[in-house]
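Retro notes, item 3 of 5
We never archived the inputs for the iron/sulfur cluster complex last cycle. Fixing that now. Sequence and ligand:
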Amino acid sequence: MAETTPTAPPKPTIKIDGREIPFEKGDTIIRAAHRAGIDIPHYCWHPGLSVAANCRMCLVEVLPPPGRPAMQLDILRWDPQKNEYVPQKKPKLLPSCQQECAPGMEILSESSPNVDEARAAVQELLLLNHPVDCPICDQAGECRLQDYWLEHQRSGKRMRQEPVHKPKGVVFGPTIVYDAERCIVCTRCVRVSAEIAKDPVLSIRERGNLGEVTVAPGRELDHDYTLMTEHVCPVGALTSADFRFKARVWFLRSARTICQGCSTGCNAFLDYDPRNNTPYRHRPRDNEQVNKFWMCDEGMLSYKRATEDRQTGALVGREDASAADAMEAAKEQLKGLRDDPDRVAIILSAQHSMEDNFALLTLARTYVGAADFFVSGKPLGRGDKILMNEDKNPNTHGVIALAGSTAGSDRPIAAPRPVADLLKGIASGKYAYAIGLGADVEVDAKEAKAALQKLRGFVVIASHDGPLTQAAHVVLPACAWTEAEGTYVNEKGLSQVSEKALRPLGDARPGWQLVGELGRALGFATGWKKLGDLRAAMPAELRSGKSQSNEAAPAAPVASAGAAAG
Ligand code: SF4
Ligand code: SF4
Ligand code: FES
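Structure as it came back at the time:
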C-alpha cells in the first residue's frame, strides 16, 4: 500500500473586516491580527507582556454567531432635535487584547461606526488631563497619543475644567525620569519590571484620574532593564536620562545593528543623526530567536562606544603618524617574519567582525604560514538568566568557528588560545612577532603590556584604544561596528549582520581592508579590495548569513519604526 504523507490540518481562522486570517490556539484577537500585519490600535497591550486590558483603545465589535442575538448595551444618547438624552441600544464592544479567538469568529474593527466612536471617546478621555506639551516632549514624533489622535479622534476636548495636576520630573532612578501628568496608566512599565526584569519595583497608586506610577518604598528603579520601561511607554511619561532633550526623533535615521555588549548579540536599531554623524541611542529590534523585544541597560547604553575610547589615527611608537608612514613602519617591524613563521603569533579578536577576523586568518595561514592563534577580547563580566551573557564579546563563537574551519588553509589548526597563553609563549622566547586585531585582553592590562612590548615586531589593527594598542609598535585605526558592515556570530551560533550607520571617525578604515593592505605591504598577494570579494572567499558555512531579525522592513526612520515596537 502506498504510504501517504500526513498533512497538517488547516489552521482555524477568524475574519477581521472581512479578511480571513489564521490563529493559533490561545491567541487573542489582537495577537492574531498583529501576526497577520493588521493594526488594531492599542496602548496597554504589548506582544511580550501579559494582558492588562486597561486602556480600552483596542475595542472591536464581535458579530454574534448566526441566529444568536448581539449582546446590547442600554445607553443614553444626546438628541439635538429633542434637546435631551434619549434611551438607545448599541452593541457591547470587546477588548481585542483580552478576547480569545474562536473558529469562524467575525470581527469589525475599521469597518464599524460603533468602534470608531468608542476609539474617539477613549482618545478624548485619555487626553482630558494630558498636558499639551508636545513641542517640548521627547516622545513627540513617536507618541501614540499623537498618532491615534490623528487617526481616531481629530477633535478638541470638551472638558473646560482645570486638568488634574500631578508630579513632574520625578527621578525614578539613575536612568529614568517620570512625568505623571503625561502617564496614561497603561502599566506597561510596571509589567516590564515584574515580568521581564523579575523585579516588581513599580506599581500604580490611586485610581481613576489620580492614578500614577510609583517606585516601591526604599527602592529606586535600578534593575538591569530600566530602559525597557521607557522603551515600552507609549507616551512621553517615562524618559531616559541619557536621551532626553538631546535630539528630535524626526532628524534621526536608524541602522539595523547588533549590540556589541555581550555574546547574546541582541538585535538593535542604532538611531543616529546623519547631519553631525552622531549616534544618540539604541532601541531593541524584535527577534524571537535572540532578544525577543528587549535589551539590557548595559547594551542600550553601549552605543556610546561608537565614539568613546576610539582609535581614530595611526600610531608608530605611540606617536601620531600618517596612514602611509604607519604602513611603512609596520612593514619594517615585521620584515623578519617571512623567514620565521613559527615565531609569529596571530591575535584574532572576539570584538571584531567575522570579515576582519577572516582577513587576518587568511593572511596568517595562506601567506605567512603562521599556525599559532590567540583571541583578544574583554574579560568575563556579569550575566543573568534573562539576556545578559558573562562573555562580553559579540563574536567569540565566530572566532572559534573560523579558527576551527579550514578557512585559508588545508591544514587543521588548533583552536585559538587566550592571551594569557601568548604571554607565556613570549616569556619563553617562542614568539618574536605578532599581528593582532582588537584592543582588549582578558588578563591584567599592565602585565599584558609589559610582556607584549618584548616582541621584536607587534602590529595591531583596532577600532578602540586598549592594552594591545598601547603595547604595539604600530597601530592601524579600524572602523567600529557602526562604521562598516560586519557579521557577528552569537552564543547560539546565529550569524547576524550589523549594518553600517556612521561615517568612519578620523582615518579609520574597515579592519579587513587594513589587513589586506598590510599583507600587500609585506609582499603577499592579499587581493580582496571589496567586501564582496572577501565574503566570496569565506567558506560557505561562515559566510555572512542573513540577519535573523523578525522585522522584514528596511531600516525605517525612527518615527515609524518606534510604532512597530508593539
Ligand atoms: S509611565 Fe508610561 S508605560 Fe508606565 S503606566 Fe504610564 S504611560 Fe504606561
Ligand atoms: S544582553 Fe548583551 S547583547 Fe543584549 S543588549 Fe545586553 S549587552 Fe547587548
Ligand atoms: S490594548 Fe486592549 S485594553 Fe489596552
